[in-house]
Structures
1.
Amino acid sequence: MQLIRMFSVLFLAIGGLACGQPLVHDEHEVVVRDSVKLKIAPGPSDPQIQFAPLPSAVDSVAIDPTLGYFVGNLGGGVYWVTDGSYNNMFMVSTHGVIVVDAPPTIGHKLLYAIGNTTRLPVTHLVYSHLHADHIGGASLFNASHPTIIAHAETRNRLATLSPLDPLRPLPNVTFEGDYTVSVGNQTLELSYHGPNHTPGNLFMYAPAQRVAVLVDVIFPGWAPFTELGVADFVPGLIAAHDVLLTFDFDVFVAGHVAQLGTKHDVLQQKKYIEDLRDSCASALNGDMTDAIGPTVAANPGNVWATPKALFRVAAQICADNTTSRWLGVLGAVDVFAFENAYRMVNSLLIEYDVPGPFSVA
């Protein structure tokens, strides 16, 4: 629980970027900057870390400090809740409430948000995926005995925990492909399109309200959190952008950052991650002999020293090049630039088969 609180604090403290105003665009045009001078953020040993200022693309809602949370009405009985770092959604029907996720950082505030909106009980709880930072507050709904719904892979992974986590009760309804939650006059469509952030991570869509939900993949207005949102399978993460764009939505609810998104945000992040991928592939295929030479020479016989140096140099080159083009377009591009590039470098090596210096001799 302490780790979750630290994670939330870290998320709230993310710095960001901006060099002037973002360029003008329409919904289907994605633009990046290509001439911003970048200085990678200092390391953890520095006494003070100063990141670039946030651009106007970061438009977080104001959180009432007394309440500690914000509830937004998306229309048609759909609401989203945020504590400034974590988000979730609930739907009020004529017969009960459907809740999507229960982040422990929001915790009991989620009960207040729902209770101040309706007197109807929570009858259904949907797990977006297995991670505790998004469903670790699920046990708060035990009193109403909701039907808990998740992808089969989510249940399988939760069931491997020993002992079972009482804060994340096992779902009692699972599915493999698609599943429709129907309660009273509300409908929420769940679908699975393969692993991305995690195996079992769901696409969720409220067709009547044209609201889409996908957790830990898209970060509206912001660059992705560290290691591409701690992505389990980067090719699936990248493909998820195109899958999400097939849904006919006006509003997008993300798992993090205190702002809603649109299709433009999905297109913008897709462009950023593709740029990151291409930049890291270029770095891997470049000549890094001189850059890693001193590390190799200083560690004779240490078989881990060479790949460590190579991964670090390739990631830094990729981070520098990509961030210089996106500083001022997405929030906090400089904060996790290296970590995101490092994850992409490793994905290219083992998931995409871009072997670089590890090619067949």
Note: Residues 230 and 290 are 31 Å apart (CA to CA).
2.
Amino acid sequence: MRVFETQLPGVGQRYQITFSDGGVFTIVIHNDGSRQVFWRDDPDDDGKELFTTTERDAQKLAEIFEGVFFDPVADDLDDALSGARIKWVAIPGDSPVVGQTISDLDIRARTGISILAVERGDQTIANPESSTELLADDILVIVGDDDAHQALDTLLSKSG
């Protein structure tokens, strides 16, 4: 990878990043702080603008590239989570669980499912308390193995 920096009088600064396997990534930083981002498959091609962004959004993108928000997962965690599936499951309006609390239903003991969150309209209840009442059309964010998911499906169904 090679980086070229060019002063653009009256405009700002241009950075061109040429990748060894082809392609040129260009960022133009305007004097007002906005950024234009371009991509060319070949140095001789005309560039295609990918997007324009504000200085603040560009800083957020830079933080993401830098890995500020990323916390690597340990390799041994894959074994610990083997078989676990995270799913989003809607509670039907005619479900027998509607109006009951997580504690009343004893969901963890009966199904093996852990509820990570409840999405209710625009609200997300992260790590819900056992006293959280389940309502029609709530979306449960759950984790468990395939058997646990099947047990929860049975509990949520009319015949549950």
Note: The longest strand covers residues 2-8.
3.
Amino acid sequence: MYVEMHDETGQVSKDMQEDIVKLLGTAAQKLNLSSEKEMMITFVDNEKIQEINLYYRDKDAPTDVVSLEYKPEEISFDEDIDFEGFDASELMNEFDSYIGELYISVDKAHEQAEEYGHSFEREMGFLAVHGFLHINGYDHYTPEEEKEMFGLQEEILTAYGLKR
């Protein structure tokens, strides 16, 4: 799996970024995802994540992670447009490899690591896996969904060695 990363804060070391990529590789294997899948992670501060949270979720407050799942089935082409022999299915196959993007607040990760009494690395890993599961269709709106998602999340983090 390919993970593109952008650190707008300058606070996430290359080593930590590499660890997150490996962790998400473990998560992708657990979900039996194709190695062709791609995603993006952008590390931001509380101010930026609040803007993103307001724009995408209509919530005017900073949060720890915003997950934007990519759903290729929601894209359609106007059948009246002549692509002059262009095969749109080829483009859709390429889009199909992109699963989504995460925005992680480094500020919130620091705050929550302290609040929960574990390392910053563990919190960053938790947020990455949590967001990753969201962009792969998992949620926690009901008790059943929460049990499944949080159980899987803990299983992945423990398998990688990021225990509480």
Note: The chain has one domain: 2-160.
